Amino acid sequence: MKVRIISGVVGAILAVAILLLHKTFVFPLAIAALICIALFELFRAGKCLQYYGNYTAVIALTFLCIIAMFAEMVLLHKHVTYQSTLFIAAITLLVSHSLSMLNTLLHISSYGLASVILALCSAWVADTGAYFAGTFLGKHKLCPEISPKKTVEGFFGGIAADVIFMVIFALIYSLIAHAHVHYLWLIFIGIVCAVISVLGDLSASVLKRQQGIKDFGNIMPGHGGVMDRFDSVLFTVPAFYALEMMYPVFFG
């Protein structure tokens, strides 16, 4: 527990530092690093690590890499399975485009930094709220065969935590940045992202369970790898981005 707390604090400090430097090259560089590490962990989990060096190009070349990947499957069809090909294509698109949306959100308006924070925290706060609600109130298992510790009470606790955090953050931010907030829309986004974050978490749990691994990596002692912290983020960021495009949360 001590190692987990220390690792979490270090990670939080690093995240804050990156966000404070969001107007410099540090932010896109950090996103690129996260994409590379997350893809490496997923390729390793899917037992496709031998193909990693071929497909970790910049996002602009993602589709060309995928075309090359299918060409390789055709040429080396006796050794490369379609399951591996589709797995690589799916996670490459999901990870690269999902995390890249953070950089798009940052520059989408003068309130981009707030949007990035909400998109990230919509996953992490829901997970934390679900953990504590499940620990103290959990009685009914949510998906025992996939994630035995998840409970129905934790699921609703995560939704409540997400909504409360978003409203409090938006209130404070609106006072500092002199922005107006669509609170009802924000609450709706909080609920949607909290629900979707569970899907991301469970999807990662299924992959780990099927591959017989506990964590995707060990880059964060006590927490696991990047994917162990960003599995839900991969799902909440696109959801937050889509809803933000439909109707902005902050306006002048």
Element pattern in H and E:
HHHHHEEHEHHHE
The major sheet is characterized as: 2 strands, antiparallel
Residue share in helix: over 70%
Report the span from N to C terminus.
44 Å
Q: How many separate helices?
A: 9
Radius of gyration: 19 Å
Overall shape: it is: globular
Strand content: under 5%
The SS-based structural class is mainly alpha
Low-confidence stretches: none
Describe this structure in words.
The chain has 252 residues and is mainly α. It has nine helices and four strands, in the order H-H-H-H-H-E-E-H-E-H-H-H-E. Strand 1 and strand 2 form a beta hairpin. Helix 4 (82-106) packs across helix 5 (112-137), helix 6 packs across helix 7 (183-211) and helix 7 (183-211) runs antiparallel to helix 9. Helices cover 71% and strands 5% of the residues. The chain has a two-stranded antiparallel ribbon. Strands 3-4 form a two-stranded antiparallel ribbon. It has helices at residues 2-20, 26-45, 62-75, 82-106, 112-137, 152-177, 183-211, 226-230, 233-246; strands spanning 141-143, 147-151, 180-181, 250-251.
